[in-house]
Q: What sequence folds into this?
């Protein structure tokens, strides 16, 4: 139930509903999209970015908050840690227990490697667990990996690295098959046909889902498999610095016990960074849909050790974060709500755009509607537009919402909003790190040997924008790929003497560039103490 | 100023704004959370919490990230609960009722008290899904338990020592792998890719100049 202040606008939405369902809004032209993005997308706000003065990407622009972390001091000094007596000594060290890390672990284990996972919170406390909408793969007869390629390449503004995107789309059906064989419960028809829908920017219905717990179903299955294989998992432990060997190859990491503050050393023949995204950096003061540990740590670890970033200046603002009630401000409203037929409607009850434009375009369009066009709804804590969820029941029949998006129904139901009967208020939320560490097709960074990266910490698979459903896909495809290749590489690797001298080199570079900063990194966790909202600080 | 309420974190009193969730209230009070906080949005089950409202006999359970504070709430978090997870080989287990007997025999000691269902933070019918598991009806167990976030609260209340979330996890994997219908079009496509059916097409796309890719993208046909 919405308070009095919303009733007038709500009424307009209800009255227009039948007509709005029938109305098919035009898609924007390429030119319209370009202009819209330049004027309204947060990535284009020049004063929110800073030029890096040191490190492999010197001269490139990244968000201010990220620049501070990338150029910050290490949490340790090179002399502080005894590298001669490691606590762990393994073939493959995986940093991050989300979807990419666990996929990598399973494959490395399958290949016979001695593998371990360290992770900041618990295994599965990760963005992967939160993915609702689904995972793409071109496995229907009217679809093909080539069409998938075109959709993703265009959606990413023609910036994806072709060899990475090739792998993503070509390995996609097998990734789905792999998950299915592990026991992941995809939505299927009685004859086994996958239930698939559109996502923003797709030209075929290729979004596979597990209700709207797609990521949770995948994550808990992968976690169960890691446990079945008895792969060691050291939880509540963060990697805070990579260790190289005397030949400059990745050879382990310094670990921090998050509860006791103890430092440990993990030595490894190959290292995989699978630390996920950066929503908790709250770029430009945006709320986020991400889990608690999403603080771009992997980018910092890699960067300080000499790995290059690609497209770190591009972030994805999901068009539909919850704008109301404030307890769930920023939480994700899955794109599937729009895939199932709900349209975006302004304060006057008018559909102002096609609901399935790509995410960046949709986000910019909502921001325009709420700012220059002044057609947003005042929520008390900010602005938003309506996402008319009752349309779904009218189009798909009664019960569609409960069956297809139960998590959404529950999330709003807890605050007294029945999304089957009432629309919801949305505004863009910081959602996904499009850029990240630059890798070759085998998953290894282009600059640091024996350092692999998988998942959201990678840059270049999607280009400058990612389509819904291609990230769950990339963590599986590139997670497995990194696990296989890191295991094989470990077999032919002998590790030289361990060193942290790259910290000193970086300190020197910072001093020479004249940067004065007290910041230390990686950030590990956001600090929300003594604040009324997550965005107070 | 916001309206404030008094809550008791592990017995200690704090005054916090009434519109905060328990999780945010702990942070407002000055806690830097490490345990008991994962997704912050109801998906991961890290933040299981028990509470009692002063003067009320009933012990309540919830997810701290999903529940608003109330006046007089006595709060204790349950960031870890020792669930029993049995190790199995998914390639070797079979979806018969024997498997439950072997791995989780304690489910047959259920006394039907329904404490699990009453305590479920997701509002699931936990006792019912355990009943389905007992009968070897894994499909029904999987469906009934699907929204489980494995927070472990049900197990903390179970006099028979059942690890309900792990039982359900096994049932879902069995259902997903062995009982759900095979997907013909998926198997066909994987084979086509292995046979190199799309190779030339893809190689071709990878070489194309950006302008041609733009043409292709902007004029692609979109399935209704
Ligand atoms: C709410 C939400 C909905 C989404 N929906 C979809 C969707 O429908 N479809 C889709 O394709 N994608 C979706 N995404 C995106 C997708 O889920 C993520 O991009 C993807 O799961 C990331 O996987 P990952 O393994 O790279 O990272 P994560 O799953 O985040 O795992 C990274 C892990 O590393 C840990 N870690 C971080 N730093 C350190 C450190 N220093 N040391 C040790 N461990 C560390 C983290 O705590 C975490 O456990 C969604 C994302 C969110 C947040
Ligand atoms: S923190 Fe994940 S369910 Fe509450």
A:
């Amino acid at each position: 139930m919405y308070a009095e202040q919303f009733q007038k606008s709500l009424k307009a939405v209800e009255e227009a509903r039948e007509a709005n369902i029938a109305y098919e809004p035009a898609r924007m032209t390429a030119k319209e999209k370009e202009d819209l993005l330049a004027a309204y997308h947060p990535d284009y706000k020049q004063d929110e970015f800073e030029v890096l003065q040191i490190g492999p990407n010197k001269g490139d622009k990244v968000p201010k908050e990220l620049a501070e972390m990338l150029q910050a001091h290490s949490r340790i000094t090179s002399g502080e840690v005894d590298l001669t007596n490691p606590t762990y000594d393994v073939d493959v060290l995986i940093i991050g227990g989300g979807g990419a890390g666990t996929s990598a672990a399973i494959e490395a284990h399958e290949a016979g490697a001695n593998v371990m996972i360290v992770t900041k919170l618990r295994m599965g406390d990760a963005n992967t667990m939160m993915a609702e909408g689904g995972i793409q793969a071109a496995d229907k007869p009217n679809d093909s990996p080539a069409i998938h390629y075109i959709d993703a390449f265009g959606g990413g503004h023609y910036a994806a690295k072709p060899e990475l995107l090739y792998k993503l789309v070509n390995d996609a059906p097998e990734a789905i098959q792999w998950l299915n064989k592990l026991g992941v419960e995809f939505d299927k028809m009685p004859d086994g046909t996958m239930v698939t829908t559109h996502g923003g920017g797709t030209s075929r219905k290729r979004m596979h889902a597990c209700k709207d717990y797609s990521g949770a179903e995948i994550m808990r299955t992968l976690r169960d498999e890691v446990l079945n294989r008895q792969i060691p998992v050291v939880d509540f432990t963060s990697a805070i610095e990579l260790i190289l060997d005397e030949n400059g190859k990745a050879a382990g990491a310094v670990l921090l016990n998050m509860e006791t503050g103890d430092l440990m050393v993990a030595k490894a023949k190959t290292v995989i960074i699978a630390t996920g995204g950066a929503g908790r950096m709250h770029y430009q003061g945006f709320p986020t849909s991400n889990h608690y540990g999403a603080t771009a740590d992997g980018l910092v670890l890699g960067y300080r050790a000499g790995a290059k970033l690609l497209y770190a200046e591009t972030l994805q603002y999901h068009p539909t974060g919850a704008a109301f009630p404030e307890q769930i401000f920023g939480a994700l409203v899955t794109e599937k709500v729009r895939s199932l037929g709900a349209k975006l409607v302004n304060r006057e009850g008018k559909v102002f755009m096609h609901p399935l434009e790509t995410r960046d375009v949709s986000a910019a369009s909502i921001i325009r509607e709420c700012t220059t066009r002044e057609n947003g709804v005042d929520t008390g804590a900010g602005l938003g537009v309506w996402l008319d969820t009752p349309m779904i029941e009218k189009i798909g029949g009664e019960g569609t919402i409960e069956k297809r998006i139960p998590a959404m129904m529950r999330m709003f139901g807890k605050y007294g909003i029945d999304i089957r009967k009432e629309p919801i208020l949305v505004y863009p939320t910081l959602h996904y790190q499009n850029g990240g560490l630059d890798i070759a097709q085998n998953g290894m960074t282009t600059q640091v040997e024996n350092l692999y990266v998988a998942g959201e910490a990678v840059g270049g698979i999607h280009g400058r924008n990612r389509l819904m459903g291609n990230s769950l896909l990339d963590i599986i495809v590139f997670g497995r790929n990194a696990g296989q290749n890191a295991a094989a590489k470990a077999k032919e690797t002998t590790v030289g003497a361990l060193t942290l001298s790259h910290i000193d080199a970086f300190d020197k570079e910072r001093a020479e560039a004249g940067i004065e900063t007290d910041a230390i990194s990686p950030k590990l966790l956001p600090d929300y103490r003594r604040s009324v909202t997550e965005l107070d600080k | 100023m916001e309206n404030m309420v008094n809550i008791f974190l592990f017995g200690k009193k704090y005054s916090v704004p009434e519109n905060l969730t328990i999780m945010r209230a702990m942070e407002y009070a000055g806690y830097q959370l490490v345990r008991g906080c994962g997704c912050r949005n109801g998906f991961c089950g890290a933040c299981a919490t028990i509470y009692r409202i002063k003067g009320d006999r009933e012990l309540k359970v919830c997810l701290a990230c999903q529940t608003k504070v109330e006046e007089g709430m006595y709060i204790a978090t349950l960031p870890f609960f020792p669930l029993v997870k049995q190790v199995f080989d998914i390639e070797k287990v079979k979806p018969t009722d024997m498997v439950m007997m072997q791995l989780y025999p304690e489910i047959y000691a259920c006394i039907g008290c329904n404490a699990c269902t009453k305590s479920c933070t997701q509002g699931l019918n936990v006792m019912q899904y355990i009943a389905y598991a007992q009968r070897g009806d894994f499909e029904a167990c999987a469906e009934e338990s699907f929204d489980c976030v494995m927070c472990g609260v049900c197990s903390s209340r179970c006099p028979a020592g059942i690890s309900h979330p792990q039982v359900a996890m096994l049932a879902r994997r069995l259902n997903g792998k062995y009982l759900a219908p095979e997907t013909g079009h998926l198997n066909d496509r994987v084979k086509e890719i292995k046979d190199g059916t799309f190779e030339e097409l893809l190689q071709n796309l990878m070489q194309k100049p950006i302008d041609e890719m733009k043409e292709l993208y902007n004029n692609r046909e979109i399935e209704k």
